[in-house]
Automatic annotation (TrEMBL), chains A, B:
The lineage of its organism: Bacteria, Bacillati, Bacillota, Bacilli, Bacillales. One of its GO terms (molecular function) is DNA binding. It comes from the Bacteria. This is Glucokinase-like ROK family protein. The keyword Transmembrane helix does not apply. Transcriptional repressor of xylose-utilizing enzymes. Pfam families: HTH_24, ROK. Keywords: Carbohydrate metabolism, DNA-binding, Xylose metabolism. One of its GO terms (biological process) is D-xylose metabolic process.
DNA sequence: TTACAGTTAGTTAACCTTACTTACCAATCA
DNA sequence: TGATTGGTAAGTAAGGTTAACTAACTGTAA
């Protein structure tokens, strides 16, 4: 009779190993092509320990090794160079937007492999989550990947999400209330799923691949229908006590206006939303009698302002003035190294950025870099990065 | 000949031990009077491991044990109850204020043992740091303590401090620029010294002993000459990229006023400072011709407003309106569980608090507790807590 | 060309620390 | 006396360390 050993509960004794293993793997990700010896020296681990861990990582496929061409000029054995295997697994990033659901597959280094999309409004309320899962599966197959090669799926959702339970608390544009998106997708896709607010996901993307790459304290402000703000503090997303951190749409930059005129009851829409949001810009143009007939968009107003139309310019300036003071307020509280502006309106903003920064300089003594996002697919990348940030694995960052 | 064993470099193998030891000690701090067995069960450690750690902690004096009176009603051996030794060491908290330097000795549980103070202006610029050290030494002796019993010294400084290097970058009220306070005090007192901004220290005090006790995401706003804000995120002080987080004196709550009238160049004084700071309240009363002759203080204006003076009431209301919108802005960004108001003016504020919270409710959908500090010596306690938070020791929280 | 010293990379062997499991003793209740 | 609970002792496993070793290469001098 064969006695099968019951593996003892993996308690803390494994912790040290995992920590060291993670440390080694992260070092390899950062410094490609170094030897076991280099790693031991840099991480202050003994050579046998590193060798042992490296062997395991090789076995598991996370890394590759290659004999070096040349030894050191001082003599000695040729080292084996060790490289991170960026294609050891693949990540799916999903960005649920108001108009499009975008889905992408990327490798572990965040290199986009393939992308697809479908119309949100056409499918919402009609097996929506199942549709997402189908698109993910199709995309996986089309790229010749097994579902076992998927490391995880990250989703950005336009609404308030309880990240810990994986439930979308409220997403008006999808008519979702308390939808257990994470668990539903997990059972359909049989791989780990993590979800977060779209703004947070965009901030992560910018932190991973964008201007905020090296800024452990950075902020991403998204300008669109409303205004939102993703906060990265000490290299981690900060979500607040009730997942409402960065809801700067509720900010007030004009006491008198807020005291007297503003009597809005909430529907996820605050004072600042109604002063710098895209629709508010369009609406204010409409209110001027002489332009009443036209169908305005924020983009059009921006373009007219750049072209010299005084009314458009006044409108934009007023709106950007509110934005500038909002930035002052955010920066004075958070003191980030960098603020990245993103979202639909941001592309129209380059022309006005100097004006904004000069207002900041007038009111703030601290130096902060303000830039406009340049990253393509920042939300998709950020959604993917969610997996590396949140999923408990050797790759966790 | 006695051979003294050179202890091998404490590498990672000790890490796990330290972690477990810390875990056990924290458990004992939280749950006084439990047995070794209880601890093992609660922390999911084996009984021998806990016994081993407890023995070491007893040896080192951090804990005490006492044989229990009675065993469990189900029978069994009487347990040894284990208690945290709150007097295993003592902490010194120092609050350098504009008028007074306060110094206190407290035990490890934050119970104040003794307190002293001296005039800031009388000693500043004249062996100031040496004077502080002298007062600390005198206080220690007067309480029959050896300097070896001092676990550490925490200092709250009214200015911008580089917490990591221990240098006070700029403290206008002390005329300090780039003063290496930490290293100087350390060499005078020969025990670990940690320094931080006065507002951060107050926030820590409130987090340790005040209303924010159980709020891992809380904010303390201090109202005085200026307005400041200490931020605790995930149970840790957040200081920002350049130690300027929470400098909400620079916030702008009135776009038009800031655009048109406000042309202040900085001297550590921003828009909000000049609208809710104590001196600004006094100054605005002065500007009204009919009251020009009086010598105003913010406290006096508050009292007159409560007593029904219309002019005072208008002044206070305007100022508190700015404060309310500042609170809205802070909360919308940080989404804390609780905001604690402190500082000189806060005591006069109870009467107006309902008005503030009603403004918040009007503009914010999230629920946040707003309270006024009730803790005596909150800054001294916070300064002491700095040691437990920052100093690398078994007690580190 | 060959021998060999010097250097570096990586492995093997012996040992230390720490925590776990199992087994046991101690003390108490009913 | 049996059941139950608190605590200790002995043995084992896991993971890390040092020291010594093998492997492989560079450069120089006979």
């Amino acid at each position: 009779m064969k006695i099968i050993a019951i593996r003892s509960v993996p308690t803390d004794s494994n912790l040290l190993k995992l920590l060291n293993k993670r440390k080694v793997l992260h070092y390899i990700q950062r410094k490609d092509g170094h030897s076991r010896s280099d790693i031991a020296k840099a991480l202050k681990l003994s050579k046998p320990t590193v060798s042992n861990i490296v062997d395991e990582l090789l076995e598991e496929g996370w890394i590759r090794e290659k004999e070096s061409e040349r030894a050191s000029s001082a003599g000695g054995r040729k080292p084996f160079q060790i490289f991170f295997n960026e294609n050891a697994a693949y990540i799916v990033g999903i960005d649920i937007g108001g108009t499009l659901v975008e889905i992408a597959i990327m490798n572990l280094a965040g290199k986009l492999i393939s992308k697809t999309a479908f119309s949100t409004q056409k499918h919402v309320g009609n097996n929506f989550i199942q549709t997402i899962a189908n698109y993910v599966n199709t995309l996986t197959e089309q790229n010749g990947l097994e579902s076992s090669q998927l490391f995880g799926v990250g989703v950005g959702v336009p609404g308030i999400t309880d990240v810990d339970s994986g439930i979308v608390i409220d997403a008006p544009s999808l008519s979702w209330k308390n939808v257990p998106l994470q668990s539903q997708l997990e059972s359909l896709l049989s791989c780990p799923v993590y979800i977060d607010n779209d703004v947070n996901v965009a901030a992560l993307g910018e932190y991973w691949k964008g201007a905020g790459r090296k800024n452990n304290n950075m902020i991403m402000i998204t300008l669109g229908t409303g205004i939102g703000c993703g906060i990265i503090i000490n290299g981690q997303l900060y979500r607040g006590a009730s997942y409402a951190a960065g809801e700067i749409g509720y900010m007030v930059t004009d006491k008198d206006a807020a005291d007297k005129k503003y009597e809005q009851t909430f529907s996820g829409y605050g004072f600042l939303d109604s002063h710098v949001g895209g629709p508010s810009i369009a609406k204010r143009m409409l209110n001027h009698a002489e332009k009443r007939e036209e169908k305005w968009t924020a983009k059009k107003v921006f373009q007219m302002a750049i072209d010299g139309d005084q009314l458009a310019l006044d409108t934009i300036n007023d709106s950007l003035s509110h934005l500038s003071f909002a930035l002052i307020n955010v920066i004075s509280i958070i003191n980030p190294e960098r603020v990245v502006l993103g979202g639909g309106i941001s592309k129209s903003m380059h022309h006005f950025l100097p004006h904004i920064t000069s207002t900041l300089e007038k009111h703030l003594p601290v130096q902060t870099d303000i830039t406009i996002t340049t990253v393509e697919d920042v939300s998709l990348l950020g959604a993917g990065y969610l997996i590396l940030k949140e999923h408990e694995s050797i790759l966790k960052v």
